[in-house]
Design goal:
heterodimer; A: 217 residues; mainly alpha; 7 helices; B: 127 residues; 2 domains
């Protein structure tokens, strides 16, 4: 791997042999990280397929309101826009947290992931508020095929957000106690990938479920 | 020095990365707002609106793949990109295939009361 070539430049600190041994160990570790990140990427791709089938279900059922209310009567676009901006900002701050992790800046990693966590939590709160509001007016998943598909799709996304928040909480506690070691930087990178992925899924929920639903197309 | 090493933990110049995140964030916000305004002000309708909205979402997908997930910075062979391309193919088959099959089923098992309506619309017959 090219990583090892990079580190074997001669220095005055030790014999070339010991440096190359350290370098190959670092290279192996980086190689393993490389594979782990690729494996996680493949998991994200399979998760996309899960969402694709839920999107397909929704697209098929979106006009089957069974005499009940449709998207325009149910959703407030400005409310959903606020949710979208919150999630987008949290995706951005997750990226900033990864930059801080690369700089080995523990304080900033905790700060940016803290911001991301709070934004994610408020997103989840807004989503649950919307669900509770719909259910309280008798428009739960039992109402129509459209609402069943809506709750399944958006609820699955919300479940992923919940899992991401739990993961983030655990990682933050771990970093707070043990500091930024190599393996935690690797895991943080995966966590940030997961979070960016959820934001991308949400763009399509925002577009297909809300914008196209309210526009009645 | 290898630039294409994938997980590049503590390797890439900081400035470039930060700029990428900021560009991605600003572009995403702009695209989201524009799509929202088009629907809110009813600037378009019908197929034009559908294609525009899908277009905006797709552009934002690409923006986030490049600036947040750094798919363009991957070393060769581009395994991540290949996995993504295969996923996109399967996704399109699932979504477009479902819509096609279900619309066709809907059409062929329509209730008699709707038959006239469909025939008039499809064949261009006016009473």
């Amino acid at each position: 791997m090219k990583y090892s070539e990079r580190v074997t430049e001669p220095t005055t600190l030790g014999s070339a042999k010991s440096i190359s041994r350290v370098a190959s160990a670092a290279g192996e570790q980086a190689d393993a990280a490389d594979k782990t990140l690729f494996g996680f990427w493949v998991y994200l791709m399979t998760d996309c397929i899960l969402f694709a089938s839920l999107f397909a279900t929704f697209a098929v059922l979106r006009n089957n309101t069974f005499g009940g209310p449709d998207a325009r009567e149910l959703f407030s676009l400005s409310f959903v826009l606020a949710e979208t901006l919150i999630l987008l900002t949290s995706s951005f701050t997750a990226g900033l947290a990864i930059l801080a992790a690369r700089r080995n800046d523990k304080k900033q990693v905790l700060a940016w992931f803290g911001v991301t966590f709070l934004l994610g939590l408020s997103f989840l709160g807004l989503e649950l508020k919307e669900f509770a509001h719909l259910a309280s007016e008798g428009n739960s998943w039992r109402r129509s095929g459209f609402l069943s598909a809506f709750f399944t799709l958006v609820g699955t996304h919300g479940t992923h957000i919940t899992a991401g928040l739990l993961w983030m909480g655990v990682m933050m506690a771990k970093i707070y106690r043990r500091g930024l070691v190599f393996s935690s930087v690797k895991r943080l990178t995966m966590l940030a990938m997961f979070w960016h992925f959820l934001d991308i899924v949400w763009i399509f929920i925002f577009t297909i479920v809300y914008l196209m639903g309210v526009a009645r197309i | 020095m290898s630039k294409e090493f994938m997980p590049d933990i503590r390797q890439t110049p900081e400035q470039g990365r930060l700029v990428a995140y900021i560009i991605g964030y600003v572009l995403s916000i702009t695209l989201t707002f524009t799509a929202f305004l088009i629907v809110d002000d009813r600037l378009l309708s019908g197929w034009g609106l559908t294609l525009t909205l899908i277009g905006f979402a797709t552009v934002q997908l690409i923006v986030q793949l490049l600036f947040f997930l750094h798919l363009d910075r991957e070393g060769r062979p581009r395994w991540n990109l290949q996995a993504f391309a295969f996923m996109a193919l399967v996704l399109l088959i699932i979504v477009l295939g479902s819509l096609w099959i279900m619309n066709s089923l809907n059409y062929h098992s329509m209730s008699p009361s709707k038959t006239d309506e469909y025939i008039i619309k499809d064949e261009g017959i006016y009473r």
